[in-house]
Amino acid sequence: MQMSLPCVKQPDVITCKAAVAWEAGKPLVIEEVNVNPPQAMEIRIKVVCTSLCRSDITAWESQAIFPRIFGHEATGFGLEVIRELFFRIVESVGQGVTEFTEGDHVLTVFIGECGKCRQCTSGKSNICEVLGLERRGVMHCDQRTRFSINGEPIYHYCAVSSFSEYTVVHSGCAVKISSVVPLEKVCLLSCGVAAGLGAAWNVADISNGSSVVIFGLGTVGLSVAQGAKLRGASQIIAKAFGITAFINPHDSKDPIQQVIKNLTDGGADYSFECIGDTGMVTTALQACCDGWGLTVTLGVPKVKPEVTAHYGIFLTGRTLKGSLFGGWKPKSDLPSLVDMYTKKEIQVDEYITHNLPFEDVNKAFNLMREGKCLRCVIHMAK
User: Last residue of some domain: 324, 339, 363?
Assistant: First the structure.
């Protein structure tokens, strides 16, 4: 007997506006793009607000995958969810997306959490083997894009691509948040602010009364400073957000690491490289104290990705650690960070220096390139 399968209505292709980068370093172009329906375990999102991150600038200036839609710090409404259904003569029904429904408010994240792989279950890492950092401009599950113009693919960035009125992300790369949280603020927790706080708390585990030096005072560096202050660091060398001292390297004839050693009685307990300059990593290591000095590197380099340092630095007991998204497991940890924001236990609003409409996205890029903004929030809806 032939068995009929239930009819499942599929979402339609959406046509919307997106800021497309056609080549490296050239202004983005607002284009009409097609956004395909979400596939199994994915959700399609109406983007409300997205903020510009320095790593978007770095990739736009230096990477070779084009045409592309950048953006990864975003909030929005989950519009459509497709559930994965397998029928083998009614042998089994495989579950798909169950945690999101239409209208949910979400944060997008550039790394996901499957909850099942070795990394996710280890309790030691946030580097998911299934939904890790996506570098090829496609979706995790099928290595294809969800964007197109006239049938030609438009590539993704970090499997998010929030510089589009609608986007598709894997459900493991989205975090449900309260509908009362201001979307135009908490989009910063998708990357920069969370990355800095997590580097201070999760990666370095800064102790009370310690000395901290921060190289680079963008959103990430200032968030490290905020995290250090909340952990009770007694000396934070940088500027603003609880920082106790600021050093301009041009004001001293001595190497900056020597100036820091003089200020900290032999070297800082912790140093953070937040610039994306691998040469500065060595300086940060040299600015730490012998025995237990810890350097954390967070910046994304444009050129020369290799790090070099004299082995003697490590023989003296100093440590170098990397940090991706501050060690946060996005689905497990970000809700508590959002909760801290709602209770005013952490600062987020203070990083927003500009608010711009979507059509001014290139102005946001120029402001960041010129060093005239910390975070610019781009409002997708008029």
Answer: 324
Residue 6: inside a domain, yes or no? Answer: no
Whether residue 41 sits in one domain with residue 166? yes
Residue 329 lies in a domain: no
In a domain, 151, yes or no: yes
Identity of the residue numbered 122: S
Quote the longest CA-to-CA distance of the chain.
88
Shared domain check, 226 and 166? no
Distance set, CA 279 to CA 212, 321, 343 (Å): 19, 15, 39
Q: Positive or negative CA dihedral for 362, 364, 369, 372?
A: positive
What lies within 8 Å, CB to CB, of 181 at 6+ separation is 105, 338, 341, 342
Report the percent of the chain where pLDDT is more than 70. 91
Which structure tokens are listed for 109? 């994240």
0.85 cut: is pTM over it? Answer: yes
Is 215:283 a contact under the CB 8 Å cutoff? yes
What is the rounded (10 degree) CA torsion for 126, 130, 136, 142? -160
Question: For 36-70, what is each residue's pLDDT tens digit?
Answer: 988 888 889 999 999 999 999 999 998 789 999 99
State pLDDT tens for residues 360-382.
999 999 999 998 999 999 999 75
Picking from 106, 228, 226, 122, the residue whose alpha carbon sits closest to that of residue 171 is 106
Domain that holds residue 207: 196-324
